[in-house]
Design a protein that fits this description.
- The protein has ten helices and twelve strands.
- It has one domain: Aldolase class I (TIM Barrel).
- α5 runs parallel beside α6 and α6 crosses α7.
- The longest helix has 21 residues.
- The chain has 351 residues and is of the alpha/beta class.
- Strands 3-4-5-8-9-10-11-12 form an eight-stranded parallel β-barrel, surrounded by seven helices. Strands 1-2 form a two-stranded antiparallel ribbon.
- Bound molecules: flavin mononucleotide.
- The site of flavin mononucleotide has 20 residues, from β4 and α9.
- This is NADH:flavin oxidoreductase/NADH oxidase.
- It comes from Hydrogenobacter thermophilus (strain DSM 6534 / IAM 12695 / TK-6).
């Protein structure tokens, strides 16, 4: 057991517990994967990561965090994604896709064109309620029953395409203040129908999405859900709520809860320090009896190994440290006298 030991989830065995966390790359045109994604994700496969997630990949165009996000809303997207997946597979990495809808945090402009704009966000944004993300954001349109059905269908179709592209894992993005989180949190969900009010009702949209996705992917395929375990704000979503939700998701065939936090309001205050989100993963794992993945300010081998060895989480995801060093797993293995898995092209680095 340890960071470099394999893990099996349903029919999938991942060679180690080190995961590349989803990261927006702002590099797509019309949602298509291209050479950037091949090089960016591919180099992390060469570097020895066990599981690599794509960035938040939009299930419909108006659900993009920016207009230059990756997408999977049409069949034409599949081939370009498959090229990336096949390359990463050839270096022993498993591939996950994060299916996402930005809800009221959708944006019409890429980050580098937003400076000086008076109103942020997208004119076309939809959300559970007509409540803007921040004071100077577009007010989203409140979703009708028809909108909800069509977005759920978009998640389902996206999952089918992801299977066709060869992905090993699907992750539903229900964190960071995006659409599904907006349904979960009482801060952004003011609905009075069966999708608002009680916690069961606020969880319904996510449960419906998970049910639809689970139905169209193979039984052997793991399903992850990323949640914001807490809103970091008075009157918001809590860790107790996350435990309630995780129990329900487990019953619906979700295999791993990916434990992040925050993102529901613009002016949140987060007390972030190394490993600050690990206790969420630990508590959900212990109380619900479901596998968890932790993330957030994890940068060292010692931190990651401690988490796995003490069974605080099953998988350790990293984002920024992987931007700094795509070969992190290889380097850690070498530094700690483990036998690193090295692509034959790079074998001399270890001789
Ligand atoms: C450049 C960048 C892009 C990100 N994009 C996403 C994303 O698409 N989906 C997501 O769930 N989180 C996203 N995140 C959050 C990371 O996945 C991760 O949860 C967060 O950065 C904390 O981990 P770290 O301390 O290892 O960076 C992004 C983070 C960074 C730095």
């Amino acid at each position: 057991m340890g960071l470099f030991s394999p893990i099996t989830i349903r029919g999938l065995t991942i060679k180690n517990r080190i995961v590349v966390s989803p990261m927006c790359m702002y590099s797509s045109e019309d949602g298509f994967a291209n050479d950037w994604h091949l090089v960016h994700l591919g180099s992390r496969a060469v570097g020895g990561a066990g599981l690599i997630f794509t960035e938040a990949t939009a299930v419909e165009p108006r659900g993009r965090i920016s207009p230059v996000d990756l997408g999977i809303w049409k069949d034409e997207h599949i081939d370009a994604l498959r090229r990336v997946v096949d390359f990463c597979h050839s270096f022993g990495a498993k591939m996950g896709i994060q299916l996402a809808h930005a809800g009221r945090k959708a944006e019409d402009y890429p980050p580098w064109e937003r400076d000086g704009m008076k109103i942020k966000g997208s004119k076309h944004a939809i959300a559970p309620s007509a409540v803007p993300y921040g004071a100077d954001w577009h007010t989203p349109k409140e979703m009708t029953e028809e909108d909800m059905q069509s977005v759920q269908k978009a998640f389902e179709d996206a999952a089918k395409r992801a299977v066709e592209a060869g992905f090993d894992v699907i992750e539903v993005h229900a964190a960071h203040g995006y659409l599904i989180h907006e349904f979960l949190s009482p801060i952004s969900n003011k609905r009075t129908d069966q999708y608002g009010g009680s916690i069961e009702n606020r969880e319904r949209f996510l449960v419906d999405v998970v049910r639809r996705v689970r139905k169209v992917i193979p039984d052997s395929m793991p399903l992850f859900v990323r949640i914001s375990c807490v809103d970091h704000i008075e009157g918001g979503w809590t860790l107790e709520d996350s435990i309630h939700l995780a129990k329900r998701l487990k019953d619906e065939g979700c295999d791993v809860i990916d434990c992040s936090s925050g993102g529901i309001v613009e002016d949140e205050k987060v007390n972030a320090y190394p490993g600050f989100q690990v206790p969420y993963a630990e508590r959900i794992k212990k109380e619900v009896g479901i596998m968890t993945m932790c993330v957030g300010l994890i940068t060292t081998y010692e931190q990651a190994q401690e988490i796995v060895m003490n069974s605080r989480a099953d998988l350790v995801a990293m984002a920024r440290e992987f931007l700094r060093d795509p070969y992190l797993p290889m380097r850690w293995a070498k530094t700690h006298w483990l036998k690193p898995e090295v692509p034959r092209q790079y074998i001399r680095a270890w001789l």
